[in-house]
Records
---
Amino acid sequence: MVAVKAETESTKKKELVHSPILTYFSVITLLSTCPPFVILLWYTMVHQDGSILNTFNYLKEHGIEGFVNLWPKPTAVAWKIIACYALFEAALLLWLPGKTVEGPISPTGNKPVYKANGVLAYAVTLVTYISLWWFGIFNPTVVYDHLGEIYSALIFGSLIFCVFLYIKGHLAPSSTDSGSSGNIIFDFYWGMELYPRIGKNFDIKVFTNCRFGMMSWAVLAVTYCIKQYKTNGKVADSMLVNTVLMLVYITKFFWWEAGYWNTMDIAHDRAGFYICWGCLVWVPSIYTSPGMYLVNHPANLGTQLAIAILIAGILTNGKSLVWGKAPSKIVASYTTTKGETKTSLLLTSGWWGFSRHFHYVPEIMAAFFWTVPALFDNFLPYFYFVFLTILLFDRAKRDDDRCRSKYGKYWKTYCTKVPYRIVPGIY
Ligand code: NDP
């Protein structure tokens, strides 16, 4: 145990992790390329057999006009599907019962209060969706058949939503955990408010990240299965392995949802394009893409291989225990913007003694295992796996920088004891 006095704080507004030029470049690149990328990915998966080369040749032949023509217009059906889903999830968030839980103390000393009803909302959503199909009230294949239009509507609708967040952040912030960086692009991209709410109980980030984004992942995974079943009369073992592994991951997420409210996404990243547009558009499209690909590519793995991949994938979702021993830790204090001194415990045993973000490794491996049923004919189904690896390596650096500025010499001590960020000996 180490007990030295903290000298720094990390409660200021968003600080730049990289140089200003690199930050500007990456922010503007992401703002301009993510929306068309979502459409190109969908188009390649659904209309070009997952082949990047086919899409490249199409674009080479037809140029910008070809690209405009392949971009589906947001139709009334798409808006209706999104509206029904969003209203349903909002109602569940507000009205399903749940234990009251407190989030971590914020940089300005606020403690957000939530209703933990995620597991119930998840169960109600899946049971309702499957029942609507089973009883012939709604056919999920409609969702797959209008997927491009749905993504198109989500892209534009979510951009407008981020403008709303920007204006709300300026005019009517929900708490003192809000503020401008003085730069309109960063305010739009990173967001202004840490805990934006509508009224007292409707937490916008819980809605966008958990109940819209993560929930849509499960709903779309089931949709892809049903679409394949309707088209081929059966569900291939590759699709089953992919869907089961994704659902295990998402079920675990909702089981742990109140824990998620303590992570960087909720407790540190503000509500803007990065987090909210990401969860409203990037999660339903990119995260679900291995399943999207499998709909038209029902590879047969054979029982042995299917079971082997399934077991390997489930094992990567293992629990992070402190290995049966009393945990060793650093007692670290830090100062909030209000000048109050608070204390946190920095774990130095178990996985957190192995490397500072070792838990990113099983996350990346799980993504690999639910993609591998797509086999190796095309690279594109592996895009999410590659993207996640880059995202988590960057995140480990961002978190490190934030913790260094928050905990000062305590973090230095932790880094001396546990020198690697993710993979011991490598990074
Ligand atoms: P963590 O849950 O590890 O949260 C990081 C925070 O934990 C730090 O900011 C710090 O917060 C605290 N902390 C850091 N080191 C220690 C320590 N040694 N002991 C105690 N507390 C510590 O990380 P993430 O929020 O990045 O990830 C949460 C999960 O979500 C992971 O499993 C990750 O794989 C997953 N994830 C998935 C993504 C996806 O797109 N699929 C994207 C991002 C994450 P404090 O200031 O409060 O002390």
---
Amino acid sequence: MNEMDNIISEIEEKLGNIKNIKELNDLKVEYLGKKGLISNLTSKMKDLSIEEKKEFGKSLNELKTKVNLIFDEIKTKLEEEELNKKLESEKIDITLPETKIKVGALHPLERVKREIEEIFISMGYDIVSGPIVESDLYNFEKLNLPKGHPARDAQDSFYIEDESILLRTQTSPVQARVMDANNEKGPIRILCPGKTFRRDDDDATHSHQFSQIEGLVIGDNISLADLKGTLEEFARKMFGEDRSLRFRPSFFPFTEPSFEVDVSCFKCGGKGCSICKGTGWIEILGSGVVHPNVLKNCGYDPEKYTGFAFGIGQERVAMLKYGINDIRSFYTNDTRFLNDFNRMDGE
Ligand code: DAH
């Protein structure tokens, strides 16, 4: 019994020197292991009387429980200390400035295209596309621009091999393609964004490659009023609720009558500023009522159906909307320009 009392004080003394869990475990084995000092006490039982055995066994069990408790307590304390040390050494200094991660963003032209597409999709238009390498037939002939027509001069072309195949000079050929492909010769409502090419000297406002967004509507009794209503809806959604439109008579071989359409300046509201060059108006597209010859060329009966068409200059809209003053910056892929643009857009 004395030995048992000694063991407790011995353990308490030794525990004072324990520095880590390993040492603690070793100590535990020394006392509670199979051949440990406490287990050894059991062997002493054989020399005792039954009464003594009872009392001794009880005390021995109490001793084991107590010693186990002491070890558990110290173990928890040591584990806590070790965790705190680890946390302290792995602390991250969050006061350091972060390294900026470069993420991509939509190109301004793509952004404008998607915005315009959304507006027309909401009015029930289908988005279609056509070939960039186009035939003379679709790019000119079907659109009422026969060979030798003076209006062809305005669209100096990049020909491929001979003069029957070229890089399309406008997205208008897609009108003819969609009409041709419509077997029922029924109503049409399409929007076609795409790349176009003309032999031009590049400068701040001209580029030999650019993009247009073509629209075509064919149906019963489609009139100039429908064209005006549609373009007004587009202008308000694109440039703001207070915008009004001005239709200036113009000439396109595939429409009659034809118009160039101006939107009231969204910067100055029409008073006159640098963007609208003091006029209060900004030209954004060409449009008109589909010429009967175009309908006929594509198998439609002009007596039965009428339609309207328009072609929006995508770069022009993007330049106006985002205050970009050199068309070439769209194509040079200078990331400083693209970043500036994204910043401007609040991203
Ligand atoms: N294709 C014309 C151009 O490139 C733009 C245009 C004008 C398209 C009138 C049309 C339209 O559909 O009706 O200058």
